[in-house]
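fyi for ur records
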Amino acid sequence: MNYRINISLIIIFLLSCKIAIAQSYDDYELKKINFSGNSFFSESDLKQNIESKESPMWFWIFLNSFTPFGDEPVYFDSSKISVDIMAIKELYYSNGFFLTEVNASFTADTSDKTITLNYTINENRAFYYGNVKYVGLNKLPDFEIELLNKELVELDSTKQFSEAEIESNINSVRKFLANHGYIFGSYDSTVVSIDTVMSKTNIKMFFDPRDRYTIKETIINKTGRSIEQISNKLIEEIADLKPGKNYDQAQIDRSELRLLKTELFSSLDINPLISDTVNKTIPIEINAVITSLNQLAPEIKADNEFNTFNAGFGISYTRKNFLGDARKLNISTSFRLLDVTNYDFKKIFDSNHGIVDLNLKMEQPFLFGKPILTSTELYLRSQTIPQDENAYGGAQRFDFEMPYYTFVTLLRPFIGFDIAERKARFFPLTSPNEISIKVGSFTPGIGIELGSSKTDDILFPTKGNFFFITPELFYSRTEYRITEYLNKSDVELNDTASIGNTYFYRIQTGVSSYLSVTNDKMTVFAGKIRIGYAQPFTSSHNKDFSSEELIPPNKTFYAGGSNSIRGWKARELIPTNKINYAGFTTNTQDFRGGTTWFEGSFELRKKLNDFFGYAVFADYGNTWNGWKEIQINDIAVAIGLGIRVYTPIAPFRLDFGTKFYDPSDKRMIFKKNLWDNLSIQFGIGEAF
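which gave:
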């Protein structure tokens, strides 16, 4: 009996010592966490997944001591070590490393009361996919199984086991069932059998599709101020949820979005009535709160048109359900200052960097009974960029609603016209007298916007690609009026006018790609390429002008600015070769852009938290007068660093770009003053 008591006392004593030792480190900062033996996961990936966190640097602790900013010190907690080990193993297990071993140790520095925590990892070999079965899906028709297979990630024996891929396929199956009438289809469980001899994982995923359901009817519940002016029939036509159709959750989501785009509703939701299912049919309920049909609103304007940050104010009037059928009429006018980042506010009343516009636009959500968003727009604009330009015109666009599963997600044919007049004065290279050129153009055209957006997020994409191509065909009737003045006076020496016409095409295309480089999707590598080309395909009937000169200046290409090459100001990169205008030779930067455009970017984006981040970028490109003029040493290169502020509306960014290589003097940044070549760009949304 005494022997047992003594043993118990010894055990209690040892436990007390252990607790005392553990408690003695409670006031020690966790200065560093080290990992060794890891090759599949980086140190940053592992740190993101464990409970223990390193104490911040002294500056942030000091800042936190007297402000709400910064961070508090992090103290060592030995109880988190076992949790960390489990988290590390779980991370490896979810990627096929089922034999991973993890050990922990720590060293204490009693002089400055800090702890260094060490994790030693033995990853061992990775396991690959073996047999993969989707149990229960054999109840589906063969054609649906074929469609489903196209949406699943292929899990073959050459690929390493990934829990994320399996979860992705499970979600794809559930989504497919919900979009093909199987509203009560369910996922049960996944069984993973590990073959340690062959290093394979045999996987069975169990599903139960159950019965297919069709839409029985649409029940509409309306409330709000203008309830009498919006009929149930109109809501049904826009929603397009016809009885007898298979229940399709994706179609319901599109119907809800289509209804919200009309701006007739302050709130709206569409849901199936699960409790009223009869004979494999299900009613759909639409609950809508109808808002006022007249809206007069002052506006604060901010945009990145012309690749500059522009800001101003405006006012708009919107009449909803104009002439019925959910048409929307909008009349708006605004004034904006161009390139606010580089604006000289001392000259706000006499500066020539403003734009005034008046717009009239009418939209209707369907055409010929189909969900084709049709918009008709007329505009009047007066601007300086920095040349004076007045323009008015119109456009008719047809925006086809594309199914979610198609590669093409944007299909928008259009037809339009514009009448523009641009004026500029300059000293030509061939005469001591000043020349004024006024170009008036009438340019009708047709085109189509095609695009494919397969990214995971609109505001901060972390994976996927975006592609677009816009071919256009124009006819241009252009009048040049050239006036020669004596030196710098207003004394006219000569005034000539000439008219020419030509047909030309213009094509713009580009691709953007996004790749997350960390598991937490907070660090993303992004890249883009943009190409544009304009070319006449009929000759000029006027001997004074070539067909290229008859392409209106507002249809040419420019580079530089907040969404372009950020080491240069907006529209600063244009061709520098010489062009003759009716016998007068001038540098094209005095008047117009180029007919060939090429640019691209690489960007590493890092989100520090939900609100702040930064980006490191490199941009390149330029414009030329024809593809034959392209030379490698004419490609401008900019590098820089940007700050990001993330909001629910859009990211706001401040980019500091510098000319790494300037084609105007063929010199690198190393031979120049950095600050003299720095350009500050402010933008809304990511650069691409």
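The chain has a mean pLDDT of 88. thats all i got for now
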